[in-house]
Protein 1
Amino acid sequence: MEGLSTRLRLRVSPGARNARVVGRHGQAWKVRVAAPPEGGRANEAVVRLLAEALSLPRGAVTLVSGHGARDKVVRLDGLDQTQIERRLQSAAGKEPVES
């Protein structure tokens, strides 16, 4: 799907023991990364984690806002909202909820 782009809200916990998608946090998805929040290292770890969890190339995940905050917004190219939700639920170890 050429040109498809979706924005996703995140709540990030840097400095965790391991990187993973945790689950829902209100309207956002909660993720944990091992990298510290210094020098953009946690942001890069978030982008890499999402690319892996969503089976997207690294270049298809862009941090849009929240560079210095726990609450972030990323742009995901090539997936629609339904695909993103299913893949994140799977990455979090939960079965997708049918709507």
Note: The two ends are 23 Å apart (CA to CA).
Protein 2
Amino acid sequence: MTLTSESGTVGGVAITGKAFGNCWNPECFLDEDVQFTWYCGGGLGAAFLGLAETDVRGNVNVSKFGPKFNGPGGFIDITQPTKKVIFCGAFMAGKLQTEVKDGAIHIVNEGKFKKFVAQVGQVTFSGDYAVESGQQVMYITERCVFKLTDKGLMLTEIAPGIDLDKDILANMDFKPIISPDLKKMDPAIFQEEWGGLKDIIESRNCCN
């Protein structure tokens, strides 16, 4: 698995926070326009992006919130041509606090704002277009996992320690499809000390 970022890094391990866009031990640096040409040409096997607002059709908004316009940046260029897209982020916004203990996740302080809304403020990623083009789309949060279907968002996994009605459905503006095969998220994720990611990736071949 080779990681890249839109700033032009290839390989290595990404740096987070204010140094985002840099990485440790990269294989090479590309000019940003070259990196985006590769992205737009479908070069990525999978894309992992942030999750702000999502609605029942699987649309994602990361570009406009009320009167505040952030713009999409490279979000559209990355998501449109990539066949597997994974959105990652907290389930709620605004001072959410969680803790991992005894193999489960616990909500210490619930967030103030819902991120799974009836209709996003702006469509930065179109769920309908993704369905039409055959993209595989997932939405991963700390407490549950959704996947996009032609009927809308389907809840497929729930974290240990999370109550479906109280912690998930009560904090959404719409009711998702509930998978008849609803599973628990891998309990190994919720250990206080966690490792073995390489073995998990290799055993499940998760990014191919």
Note: The chain has two domains: 1-40, 54-204.
Protein 3
Amino acid sequence: MLDAAVARWRALIGDEHVWTDDERLRAAGTATFATTQRVLAVIRPANREQVQACVKVAHELRVPLHPTSRGRNWGYGSRVPHRDAVVLDLARLDRIVDFDERMGYVTVEPGVTFWQLSRFLRTNRARVFASVTGGTSGGSVIANALERGDGTGPLGDRFGYICALEVVLPDGDVIHTGFARFGEAPIAPLARWGVGPYLDGLFSQSTFGVVTRATIWLAPYPARFVLAMFNAEELPPLIDALRGLKLAGVTTATTPVWNDVKALSFYFGQYPWSDTTVTPLPTDMREMMREGVGLGRWNGTVALYGASRAHGDALRDVVADVLSPIADVRFHEGPDDPLEADEAECAPNLGVPHDFSAATTYWRKTNPIPTELDPDRDRCGFVWLSHAMPFDGAHAGVVDEIVETEFASAGFEPNLALLGVTERALSAVAAIVYDRDVDGEDERAMQCHDRVHSMLVERGYPPFRRGVQTPAAIGEPRYAQLVDDIARVIDPHGVFGARG
């Protein structure tokens, strides 16, 4: 059936947008860790109508599809499907459809990147900004939100601030969620829930449908922006203090806390091969490197958004009072007008993405980091572990101990970030970073991943985000059964192969 489907897709969207050659299929099937799933073809529709037509062919001929937006899901599987499938590449759907500065929203297609959206807003001198990911600036705004990726700034719970999804179902039909199902209702881009059951969640971290449009909420620029930068030696009191600041509303932004390894990889870019060939990074060198650049065992920021200069100064004083007894705190004064500041000064906290974090995928490579990042192509080894935990110092200490011990024993640096995206929960994200050109590293990395994943789940910290490498999150059996029941109704032929 694949050959018949390919022929019909070529007729629908053009030969140049249906790829079956070995080189491009091999590239689409390459991730930052070893995978076995095959990409059978790549199809690249240009608009929602073409997506519908392509999906209808797959539905009729029972050909499995795997939707991707920009395919830069590095560390979770990139473009690789979770089973042998045709990749439905949505990168050509890259329009910014609607924008309302006064009400603070923008409606985009899945091919729109963080960089494209940032450029659009700043070129139009809009006084609102989007939460951007800490990953690549070339990633999809919609896809990252649907995967419940974390963002910087006051709207960091990115899936919590989208609405009005346009979705192509596995049979090719289209639905709109929330109030958007009522056509041109002016409330559609302004409210999440709609009336009746809330369906948006069905299309997050699932394969129940292809989202071809969504509305993203934006934050206003503050009258006063201050960035508190801190480093500390003890983790539990730091986490508890940050929770207090979040719960009190002192900061509405994601509060990132990085261990020294993650901060060093961000600061230096690559492993200090000129000083040592030993891996993992020796303890004495780790300490020397962080002391040399003024880092602590734990490092992070608190972004403060004041409604006035006095408000911003008051927030700064509160942070100083809370954090100074347990951390070294420094303050960076933001620009009087964020639109007049250079982008390096604005950075992600004011909606300007960069690729500094994405470049850390090259940490263990011996070749220089290229100008154009492509860790799949360059055989960077990078695997994420992403687990949810309470915003509590004692729990943070448990996770840190597991990552430190198990990563070191497997021969990897314990790269760990604890992200306070919401007031009560932390996202613990640990990265196994290595060089895929070193024999045996793929196998060792995945063994480490599986072991740490199991240990964290056993301690009560389930994953909040999964890649193709992550075991299914079963939990309560009846819940899993209900997901399967919904999948059989929505996708009876398994076109998208929905999984919970």
Note: The CA atoms of residues 336 and 454 lie 48 Å apart.
